[in-house]
Amino acid sequence: MAEELTLRVITPERMVVDTAASSVQIPAIDGSMGIFPKHAAMVAALDSGMMTYTAAGQTHSVFVAGGFADVRDNTLRILTPAGEPPEKIDEERARKAEARARERLKPQRSNMTAEEAAIDIVRANAALHRAIMRLKVSQRGRR
Question: Is there a single domain that holds both residue 67 and residue 118?
């Protein structure tokens, strides 16, 4: 039997994943990171993106909306504000969120200060990234 680690993806509302996995790939802030059984203890900040894991010989995907990864005692805990497997992603909602974010990124004249406009651009970019990653996870789940 291959070695495994316990994987738990936890949001404020529920446990999204609770399984044994032979490998996990997470979207860390500074790039994709692989986690395997007996990984050294660590904490990593997560970016919004696709987390993949292999359990019982099959690869699964989950959208995670940032948060933290905590590895300790052969258990990987992903603490995230939102986590969604492909079948739970509302594609229409994600497409609308993408369109809204793209609209906010278009150059516009407004009564915002330069600082407010810069903050709005950062928020719109983050919303666009989340929407695109949700769609990517959703489409991967349909394969």
Answer: no
49-79 residue pLDDT tens: 999 999 999 999 999 999 999 999 999 999 9
Residue 126 lies in domain: 89-141
Task: Name the nearest CA neighbour of 69 among 97, 30, 99, 96.
Answer: 30
pLDDT at 142: 60
Residues 6+ apart with CB under 8 A from 87: 141
Residue 31 CB contacts under 8 Å (≥ 6 apart), including other chains: none
pLDDT less than 70: residues of the chain: 1-2, 109-110, 141-143
Number of domains in the chain: 2
Residues 23 and 73 in one domain: yes
Specify whether 58 is located in the same domain as 25.
yes
Same domain, 47 and 112: no
Instruction: Enter the tokens of residue 76.
Output: 């990987």
Residues 61, 9 within the same domain: yes
Q: What's the rounded Cα separation, in Å, for the pair 92 and 94?
A: 5
Nearest-5° angle of CA 51, CA 54, CA 55?
Answer: 125
